[in-house]
Design brief:
Elements: H1 2-12, H2 23-35, E1 42-53, E2 56-67, E3 72-75, H3 80-84, E4 94-96, E5 99-101, E6 113-114, H4 133-149, E7 162-163, E8 169-170, E9 181-191, E10 194-203, E11 212-218, E12 224-229, E13 243-250, E14 253-261, E15 265-267, E16 270-272, E17 274-284, E18 300-301
Parallel strand pairs: 6-18
Antiparallel strand pairs: 1-2, 1-17, 2-3, 4-5, 7-8, 9-10, 10-11, 11-12, 12-13, 13-14, 14-17, 15-16
């Protein structure tokens, strides 16, 4: 590891820091970045699912909303593709007792209805509810008071907060997930115009839970711009396929931009050689008095809680 660091610094010259942090320190800084994200209370966005099947490329978009004060996600289970391409069954089914002869109808939703949020951290930081607007000012005042009492050297937004069950924030953090991986520094790479550390991760235990395999962490800010994971969803067809995830910054806050499957996906008799899930038109909103009624889908693509 020391030899690799020396070679990297020598080869890359003054463009990189003279003292490269350990890969575990880089990982923990990335965790701290995620803890420090200040998400809006409510988000509206579209989830676009693009699939390639042979020479055909199709896209479905689902209107979605996220309540960061409770973690609730609403999804319109009827995509724009379904509205413009209604399924029409031609001919008739012929049945004798329980045996029916008919052409199978392709799935309406390419990979199931995506119940997803662009704020997901892939286990880098737990979900911490955003304080409701009427209590946000009081919460900030309490945090500042704690920092003054304990002479906390971290500037606001840089040291993460944990929220206890009673709802009070505490200035504390324990890096739990870093201990679940063997982490090594592969080198420096440019991602979306950002100079990044490329980390390689191997799960020491429970690889289904600790599924990160590569991270690209901004050298300057600690932001995650890209990652690769061994599997993605806990339900739906993408559960056993590796995925590559890219991130975007909107209004100074980090969101998922897209998640691309690194292998073909098979779902309900269909095979997609390429599958990409993107988050579009991500925007902060004031939740309406009457939220649209969304139908709970029978088949869905879900993630486990952060």
């Amino acid at each position: 590891m020391v030899a690799l660091t020396a070679l990297l610094v020598a080869a890359l010259g003054s463009a990189h820091p003279s003292a490269v942090p350990s890969p575990y320190a880089i990982y923990e800084r990335a965790e701290a970045f995620w803890y420090g994200q200040d998400y809006p209370g409510y988000l509206d966005y579209d989830v676009a699912v693009q699939v390639r099947q042979g020479d055909s490329v199709r896209v479905e978009r689902y209107r979605s909303s996220f309540d960061a004060t409770s973690g609730a996600i609403w999804v319109d289970s009827v995509s724009d593709y379904e509205r413009t391409h209604p399924v029409v069954v031609h001919g008739m089914n012929f049945c004798i007792l329980a045996l029916c002869l008919s052409k199978p109808v392709p799935p309406i939703d390419f990979i199931g209805v995506p119940i997803l949020t662009p704020t997901y951290t892939f286990g880098m930081a737990p979900f911490i509810p955003v304080a409701p607007p009427d209590s946000a000012q009081a919460q900030r005042a309490l945090v500042n008071q704690i920092r003054r009492e304990f002479h906390d050297p971290y500037p606001p937004g840089r040291k993460p907060l944990q929220v206890a069950k009673n709802g009070l924030p505490t200035i504390a953090r324990a890096s739990v997930t870093a201990g679940a991986y063997d982490i090594s520094l592969v080198g420096f790479e440019n991602v979306q115009g950002h100079e990044c550390y490329h980390l390689s991760l191997r799960a020491r235990r429970d690889p289904g839970r600790y599924r990160l395999r590569d991270l690209w962490i901004d050298v300057r800010s600690g932001a995650t711009w890209k990652l690769r994971e061994a599997l993605n969803f806990i339900d739906g067809p993408g559960t056993t396929v590796p995925w590559t995830v890219d991130f975007q910054n909107i209004g100074g806050v980090q969101y998922i931009a897209r998640e691309a499957a690194d292998a073909p996906i098979r779902y309900q008799g269909q095979t997609y050689s390429r599958t990409v899930v993107s988050f579009e038109r991500v925007r902060a909103v004031t939740i309406p008095e009457e939220h649209p009624l969304y139908i709970t889908p029978q088949t869905a693509t879900l993630k486990e809680p952060d």
